[in-house]
Amino acid sequence: MGYRHNNFASNLRKQKSNTIGIILHELNSNFITSVLAGIEKVTTEAGYDLIIAHSSESAQKEKTNAQNLFHKRVDGLIASLAFDTEDLQHFAPYDQKGIPVIFFDRVEEQSETTKVIIDNYKCGYQATQHLIEQGCKRIVLVTASLKRNVYAQRHKGYVDALYDNGLPYNKEHVLIKDLSEQCGVEAALQIMNMSPMPDGAFITNDFSAAVCMQTLKEYNIRIPEDIAIVGFNNDAVGKIVEPQLTTIDYPGIEMGEIAARNLINHLQGVSDIKQTNTIVVRSSLIVRKSSLRSGYSPNLRIII
To answer: How many Å apart are CA 247 and CA 253, to the nearest integer?
Structure first.
């Protein structure tokens, strides 16, 4: 007979939309794709639909997305903040209406909001410490805006590892980039122009690290003999490049599942996310040949 169930009318009657809003800072990222996969797995099993919005690293667009999803009456929201987001006021209407919000990866660490993160400080420290243990004494950090918690904490771990090992901090060795393909090329050229040239590099994005490695190799720079390199995220590209890339494993699927499960449990009355301020997901250092100078076996995984 051509009958179609009217979800809109049904949702109005039940005062719920069975929809979860997602705000992402970017889409062209293996990490974000894996987080989405984790979220989708949990929400689909619970009978919720997703509406995905993309801020393109713009705080203004993020505010517009938050407003639009609010007016679409989403039951809950999962968000990762843009580079230039400075406060969370545009999420205040959700709190006022009792709509749960969970932040992941890019968060405001000093806020009382519920957030799912890894220990970026420990990751930054461990990556730098590993390079130091391989004999590196002049280590470059290639990262993004230190306004965001993930990069600020990795930077702090880098600084403290240098200090604990009696190595000087050189601000010229900290390259603030957008972690794009062009960033990898630019970082390689800057590294080669430093005198003396750094003998280690911690690059907080695997794709940028792979491009940097390739560019260095084109100029006959040997890896890891001339410069040892550590990336971040454990993207597939790390196993394709030669030598294979040492990296920090960032468990995106697990992070997405944890964020979604906590949100769904709250919506179903199983738990209250306001009782849980911060959830720290376990991460690990995976050692491969790009940094391996001495004393380690390839594919060693160090849980941190």
So the answer is: 17
Quick one: 165 and 142 in the same domain?
yes
CA atoms in the 13 A half-sphere facing the CB of 227? 29
Same domain, 78 and 198: no
* 2 found inside a domain: no
Q: What are phi and psi of 53, to 5 degrees?
A: -120, 150
Residue 44 maps to which CATH number? 3.40.50.2300
Instruction: Write the pLDDT tens digit of every residue in 212-255.
Output: 999 999 999 999 999 999 999 999 899 999 999 999 999 999 99
What is the C-alpha separation between 33 and 39, in angstroms, rounded? 10
pTM of the model: 0.87
The range of the structural domain enclosing residue 69 comes to: 7-118+251-281
For residue 15, count CB atoms less than 10 angstroms from its CB and return exposed for 0-12, middle for 13-18, buried for 19 or more: exposed
